[in-house]
Write a structure and sequence with these properties.
The chain starts with a helix and ends with a helix. It contains 3 helices and 2 strands. Strands 1-2 form a two-stranded antiparallel sheet. The chain is mainly alpha-helical. Strand 1 and strand 2 form a beta hairpin.
């Protein structure tokens, strides 16, 4: 069993701490799983969206855009919360 001898050597040379399996640990903390390829793809999309939004904000400011008045921002925040909570119930 060449592979088992190789694995024993790897374990002997490895960090002596015990590996934690993904999931809840006894002290209430949580060990996350490695992201799947689907998770990585989703994260890449979100990162690209953030980059695009930052570029759009910079271009808008350079074109003369100004911050919206505070009451209008509050109204928009409330509307987004209503839409989000409605979407969660559908």
């Amino acid at each position: 069993m060449v592979w088992s001898a190789r694995r024993r050597r790897e374990l002997d040379e490895a960090d002596p701490t015990l590996p934690l399996l993904p999931g809840e640990v006894s002290n209430g903390e949580f060990v996350p799983r490695e992201p799947s390829s689907r998770d990585r793809a989703s994260r890449a999309i979100v990162e690209q969206m953030k980059t695009d939004e930052a570029r759009h904000a910079t271009e808008a400011r350079q074109a003369g855009a100004r911050p919206l008045p505070l009451p209008l921002r509050w109204a928009m925040r409330l509307a987004s919360r209503v839409m989000t909570s409605t979407a969660h119930h559908i």
